[in-house]
Amino acid sequence: MNWLSDKMLHHLREVADAPDLSNTRYQLREKLGRGGMGSVYLVADSELQRQVALKVLDIPDQDNHLSERMIEEARIIARLEHPGIVPVHDVGTLSDGRVFYTMKYVQGERLDIAIKSVTAISERLRIFRKICEPVAFAHAHGVIHRDLKPANIMIGDFGETLVMDWGIAKVLNQSSSVELKNNTSHLLPAKDTSRTLSGTILGTPGYMAPEQAAGEITAINQQSDIYALGALLFFLLSGEPPPQITRATTSPKKILQLLTQVSGKTVNIPKPLKYICQKAMSVSPENRYSTVQALISDIDNFLDDMAISAYKENIIELSLRFFKKNKFFVGLILTYLILRYLMIVWLNV
Amino acid sequence: MSDDTRIGGAEERFPQTRWSAIVAAGSSDSNERTRAYEVLVASYWKPVYKYIRIKWGKSNEDAKDITQGFFTRVMEKDFFQGFDPARARFRTFLRTCLDRYISNEMKAGNRQKRGGNAHIASLDFENAEGELSARQLPDAQSMDEFFDQEWLRSLFALAIEALKEFCEKKGKMQQFQIFELYDLNPDSANPPAYSEIASNFEIPVTQVTNYLAFARREFRRILLDKLRDITINDAEFRNEARLILGKDPE
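^ Those are the sequences you sent over. The predicted structure of the assembly is below.
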């Protein structure tokens, strides 16, 4: 054998990494990215003659936990049929023993990159709303995402907003999870093992709710996703990574301070929106929005220039809002009063 | 490559449920301990030798002696028992041990030829020397990277050798030859076309695809088996595997 040059070594590393697509309908095109437990490739589906994305487990573990988790991820996504969630087409095991699934190939950019070209707050809020909708849908189906962050949101070329990477999603409905785990064995390469849905603490600092960061698996629920949505909203509005709120951050006032000063920089966010972030990112889950829908309502109210639930306005702010909303009638009354005053003055002259 | 040390080859692989050579190096069973050291020496002697030549600027003869002496001392003193996977990768730990060893030897000024009673198969230093002259030498700042790259080269070369043995044993030499032609081609950017290979071997093109897929699949399996042998636990194995396989797209 020849000496392995750097070039050959590089090639062999790719060869050893590439999924073995022999005996499948897919042909490898290129590697698109790598996540926590798998890599995503662009492949051509020779049967349907289209391109799809194929996610494959990169390094299987000895007791198949990761393989089971990936199958479960595919099944969770498959049951969430929503325009904001990438549809799964196929799931199985490759000849090299690795579990894979295929999904729609989305062309676009990650949120953190796409957002750079969006300057208007109203437009950013509309994007945020589109992120909330699939999350609300998933919650309605008993699924929580647990890793919402800009890198897991894709903005398509036609403005479609997709929530990706459900790799650490959790099914809250116990009967559904039992149904999922009992049917994975035929997709696995080797021995099957019992699988639990509680698991290791995974997530991303800044976007992880305090209970998630503290590793309290049983306390993680829809409210943890609502926290992450609050952090995402903060990122969308400020362009800065959100501060990590911990159990030590006891008061709402302190959270507001953290949302105002990030890494020594003062962040300028409209006051009502800052309060929406603060409410969503409350330390205690019961102080957060009760549902994603309630959070969306506050965003809609802000966009419609109405009062929001997260912030109690004072009398001046209430009056200003009233004048702003009723400009025509207020103007009419003011004009009448001025004319009347002028008439009185004129008659007295 | 065929003249290289044969220790830790395909025949010496361990059952899938065990095992790490690093753990086994501390075993009370002397046979197991010897086998474990053989695996570790097979994986590391080349990067160690090249590192001594380049980083420490030692002559060919001195580097040979130091390499032998280092592994002998490691076996005698159970160096690897001090490895803590929470603090560093094994290869980083080994390199630190090596630096310390050379430094101490130089201070003491008592470098001796070692290896008397220790079982180290003869190592093909000429081959390693040839490889060294075939590559561009790194600068002093990138010695860590150099050591890692040479370790990687050594690991992949062992896996190729093991794949060859495996194919020979299974009567699948044609599969290996196609792998050799296509993936071990020095001009990996321009490998021969499948149709050309098919015509050379007088087999259909689909067979070339299947044979290549077989060889690549086995290559990956053997490579990961070898990596598992020289990592201490599943977490380190997975981290190392993710580092050495492929490359993230830019």
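Chain B has one domain: 10-244. The radius of gyration of chain B is 19 Å.

Shout if you want it in another format.
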